[in-house]
Design goal:
Radius of gyration: 36 Å
Strand content: under 5%
Helix content: 40-55%
Largest sheet: 3 strands, antiparallel
Structural class: mainly alpha
Oligomer: single chain
Number of strands: 3
Length: 671
């Protein structure tokens, strides 16, 4: 060979006659590459599946090479960058990486450190740098059994810190191949591999603005499709991986990050729920998402919202009136009046608004997922973990404001199955003595609001659930003697108020259910009992119920039910407790603007109700529904139109109307 020339060796030829080296490999086929540059000879040797330390390999005779007495050393990664390393086969590169890994235990870390440095290459890579990174990752995939969790901690750390969003498809594929190999090679690496993949659910902050652009959407699909495929491969290879994945996903939920980041993360959770490993993680993903909704819900501060105003009548608090309040300016001379209302209405807390926006977007994402499940026939399947989550998380949350609408929407999509299951669950919890008192009171509050507001619930179903409540209250009256005691009989008063509240919305339809009429008569006996529920329950509910009952001639004698100008008594406060569960109507109109479009078609607003005392019987129900649905989204009126601005400007007391205790939203749209 002449200087500067290169000899490509035919690997099918037995070069053993020319090779005699200290490892005693004579007689075996070798692969060699000779590069003669001046008086320097760089030579790679790979023999079978074993490769001795190349740095100390001495060639005694290679085509006369012993004449020069060269000591052949391993080519470094720096030299690889300068040279045309594409001449090397995959197996050759694997052997070189193995050598670099093995050399650490011998105290020689040069090649290893250079390998670690290659892993740190990320943004703005030149084509040759990309090729080097891809080649190195692939070589590491073939040498994972040589990686030691202690000796090679720096290398592992650099690998797990790599962000998929920073690379192109070639690097992503090579990186995920390495991650899958690591996870399947040693159980010690499984959690780290899963954490690395879960970290790729969301892009770097610098990338967030691109997610709305075509290029960003394409990049998102490139990354996440590969991440989920890798998770599937790991789950196939490591059966316990899904059980390790679920807590990682729950722990890494970026709940306090900006809205787009949280939404992208939740999208991945729902993709897992309906994906290839859904059978292992579905329940956990849904429950974790519900936990997130509740966490955001409780972060929206409602402290003191309309806390002492129950005497004003919970049925007349309209959304449009709240909007008018929000539009008032201190210069209008209404500052003193505004001080009576939640601070959120007057100062529009930015913190609360951003949280409400985040919650709103997550709920929309959840609604869309439920709709896709309904289309694919999976809704009944996913409803089970939702029920569990509601019972464990939502029902125990203090006056949850919005998260419960996930259940409402799921029930609306499948009234005959999900809708019935939810109502029965709430009734069962109310009647079960194994649950704590506050738990049972909360359940019956949910039940009353649900039966009143769901336009998808049939009259027979509502009647059957009301029958259970009436029977329970009637039996309670027979078992309990004594006089009125709001504190001792809180559950009883909760049941009575639930019955009256539902009938305020459903009086006409319940009267039309023939088999339910005897139970309507039982209600009169319950309300006349010495426990005096009419004197304890929320006055606005009692008053509206009595008006309708009298107009419908529900009772044999209506004289005892004349409660004009009712004011809240200490009795009502006592039965509601510090939590004021007497004033908790969890399915009042949803004030999250984006979520409302999913709820509105299935919702009964108070303005749609035509009570028996309404003389305007010429308006058909269809006309009422059509008129209501044509209203602007922000005008979810539930009572006759008596704008608060009129009463404020004239210094008059607000008129009392009928239930729907609506708590104002802190989302920008509703303010």
């Amino acid at each position: 060979m002449e200087g500067g020339s290169e000899c490509r060796v035919n690997r099918s030829v037995d070069y053993s006659p020319w090779v005699d080296w200290s490892s005693g490999c004579g007689g075996r086929t070798v692969e060699a590459r000779f590069v003669v540059v001046g008086l320097e000879l760089d030579l790679w040797w790979w023999i079978g599946a074993r490769f001795g330390p190349a740095e100390t390999t001495t060639i005694s005779r290679v085509m006369g090479a012993e004449e020069f007495g060269y000591n052949v050393k391993a080519q470094t990664f720096n030299e690889m960058e300068d040279d045309d390393f594409n001449h090397f086969s995959d197996s050759e590169l694997v052997y070189h990486v193995r050598d670099a890994l093995n050399s650490v235990s011998l105290g020689d870390c040069d090649s290893y450190n250079q390998l670690v440095g290659v892993m740190h290459h990320s943004k703005g890579l030149a084509p040759d740098e990309v090729a080097l990174l891809v080649t190195s990752l692939k070589a590491l995939s073939g040498a994972v059994s040589y990686i030691d969790i202690s000796l090679h901690e720096a290398l592992l750390s650099s690998i797990f810190d790599m962000n998929m969003w920073n690379y192109g498809p070639d690097v992503m594929d090579a990186l995920l191949g390495l991650i899958i190999s690591l996870a399947s090679s040693n159980g010690k690496y499984v959690e780290s591999c899963l954490e690395m993949l879960v970290s790729s659910f969301t892009p770097p902050f610098s990338f967030m603005d691109m997610l709305k652009q075509p290029r960003g959407i394409a990049k998102k699909d490139q990354v996440l499709s590969r991440v989920h495929l890798a998770l599937k491969h790991i789950a196939d290879l490591v059966p316990l991986a899904p059980s390790k994945l679920c807590p990682i996903i729950s722990r890494k939920m970026p709940i306090y990050e900006k809205e787009p980041m949280v939404v992208v993360y939740a999208e991945n959770m729902l993709k897992l729920e309906s994906g290839a490993i859904g059978e292992f993680v579905s329940s956990t993903m849904l429950m974790a998402l519900m936990d997130t909704l509740i966490d955001l819900d409780v972060d929206i501060g409602w402290d003191g919202i309309l806390h002492d105003d129950s005497s004003k009548g919970i049925f007349q608090m309209e959304i449009e009136d709240m909007d008018e309040f929000a539009d008032y300016d201190e210069e209008d001379g209404t500052e003193d009046t505004l001080l009576q209302f939640p601070r959120e209405l007057s100062r529009k807390s930015l913190g609360g608004n951003s949280t409400a926006e985040k919650l709103d977007s997550l709920m929309v994402l959840t609604f869309e997922h439920l709709k896709s499940c309904e289309v694919s026939g999976r809704l009944t399947e996913v409803f089970e973990p939702l029920l569990d989550s509601f019972r464990i998380t939502v029902l125990t949350a203090y006056k949850s404001k919005f998260a419960q609408f996930v259940m409402f929407y799921a029930c609306a999509l499948d009234p005959e199955n999900c809708g019935v299951r939810f109502a029965v669950l709430l009734a069962d919890i109310f009647a079960c003595e194994d649950y704590p008192l506050s738990f049972r009171m909360s359940a019956v509050a949910y039940l009353a609001s649900y039966l009143s507001r769901g336009n998808f619930l049939s009259a027979p179903l509502v009647a059957s659930i009301l029958k259970r409540l009436v029977d329970w209250c009637f039996e309670y009256c027979n078992r309990k003697g004594g006089e009125m005691n709001p504190t001792s009989h809180r559950l009883f008063y909760s049941g009575c108020q639930a019955i009256m509240y539902v009938l305020c919305f459903r009086m006409k339809s319940m009267i039309d259910v023939a088999w339910f009429k005897p139970h309507l008569l039982l209600i009169e006996q319950i309300l006349k009992h010495k426990l005096s529920p009419l004197k304890v329950c929320l006055p606005s509910v009692v008053e509206e119920f009595c008006r309708q009952a009298e107009a419908a001639q529900l009772f044999t004698s209506s004289e005892e039910f004349n409660f004009n100008d009712l004011l809240e008594s200490e009795h009502s406060r006592a039965f509601g407790g510090m939590e004021r569960l007497d004033m908790f109507f969890p399915f009042d109109p949803c004030l999250l603007k984006k979520s409302d479009r999913f709820i509105r078609p299935h919702f009964v607003y108070w303005s749609m109700v035509r009570p028996p005392y309404d003389d305007d019987e010429c308006i058909s129900d269809e006309d009422v529904v059509e008129e209501e649905l044509d209203l602007d989204v922000s005008k979810m009126s539930i009572t006759p139109r008596n704008p608060l601005s009129y009463w404020i400007s004239n210094g008059l007391e607000e008129p009392r109307g009928m239930p729907a205790r609506i708590r104002p939203s802190t989302s920008p749209e509703s303010l």
